[in-house]
Amino acid sequence: MKAVTFTGAGGNDVVAVEERPTPEPVGEEVLVRIRYAGINPADVMQREGNYPPPPGAPQDIPGLEISGEVIACGARVQRWSPGDRVFGLLAGGGLADHALVHQSSVTRVPDDLDDREAAAVPQAFITAHDAIRSQAGLTMGETLLVQGATGGVGTAAIQIGLATGARVLGVTRSDEGRQLVTELGAEAINDDNVADEVGEATQGKGADVILELVGAPHFPANLDALAVQGRIIVVGVGGGAATEVALMGLMIKRATLRGTVLRGRSIEEKALVVRGFEREVLPHLASGAMRPLIDRSFALDDIKDAFDYIAAPGKRGKVLLDLGDA
């Protein structure tokens, strides 16, 4: 099989495309012939040596989400058969034309989604759903503020928040971003003056849940924009990982500040996350009420350009690697 590999830690000088033996599934693993894979900031962090894969995952092949076809199954697989179209999460190894995945970490692709659209779903929609619904407990009638609203997870969070019955405010810094946020059904908030704009939009109450996808630059504004008993959940730190938090402000608002990742969770934990996604999000994707947004796709030979692109700001949806002809 062909795989994107890292020969060490650094920049694009450590990125290569290599031939590797195609793995064979055992136990509860399925072997997926990958058509498209998502490229994420986490892959760039791994390339730089700042986000090592967990034990048991491929150590030098990045990639956290895929779409494709099951072509072989381990002896204990019950959910899947060769020929099934699936998409799902991996702890690593997704930027290749084949990958092993635990049977509980993938789910069936709705008929109306093609392979390209399907690859734009798992990391974005499963991450967003787990963060704002399962962990932050967003409910009908609350206000959700999405920091980093125009990327893959941000656009998914907007749609999930609206489907929950929440009011959704999306933070963006450009006219194009404001247009996208508005088209998705949310209200656009200017990145330069978040706390004041949120206060004005909510008559001083603030946001009940803040999904933080950028990191440190949005503090202390996040706490200022938060409602009493509000919840901030941090999913991304591409803009910076270190900040100061005013603990008295956290106390006065009786607020919750929480961080989360999917990659390092156990198979059992990931299975619960995927099942929650299947129950609450997949029907909306199947009906067309929700849609994955794709910024652009790259060919395997252009993987270094893809890493440069994913590291730059201003994306509108997901960035994908096309493995259909690999």
Describe how the helices and strands are arranged:
Layout: E1 2-6, E2 15-19, E3 29-39, H1 41-47, E4 65-73, E5 85-89, E6 98-102, E7 106-108, H2 115-119, H3 122-135, E8 143-147, H4 152-164, E9 167-172, H5 175-183, E10 187-190, H6 194-201, E11 207-212, H7 221-225, E12 226-234, H8 247-252, E13 256-259, H9 267-280, H10 282-287, E14 294-299, H11 303-311, E15 318-322
Parallel strand pairs: 8-9, 8-11, 9-10, 11-12, 12-13, 14-15
Antiparallel strand pairs: 1-2, 3-4, 3-6, 3-15, 4-5, 5-7
List its salient traits.
single chain; 326 residues; alpha/beta; Quinone Oxidoreductase, Chain A, domain 1; Rossmann fold; 2 domains; seven-stranded mixed sheet; six-stranded parallel sheet; 29% helix; 27% strand; globular
Q: Would you kindly provide a written description of the structure presented here, covering whatever features stand out?
A:
This protein is an alpha/beta fold and 326 residues long. It folds into 2 domains: 2-121 and 263-322, Alpha-Beta Complex (Quinone Oxidoreductase, Chain A, domain 1), CATH 3.90.180.10; 124-259, Rossmann fold. The protein is 29% helix and 27% strand. It contains 11 helices and 15 strands. Strands 3, 4, 5, 6, 7, 14 and 15 form a 7-stranded mixed β-sheet that branches. Helix 5 (175-183) links the parallel strand 9 and strand 10 (187-190). Helix 3 packs across helix 4. The termini are close together. The relative contact order is 0.16. The mean pLDDT is 95.
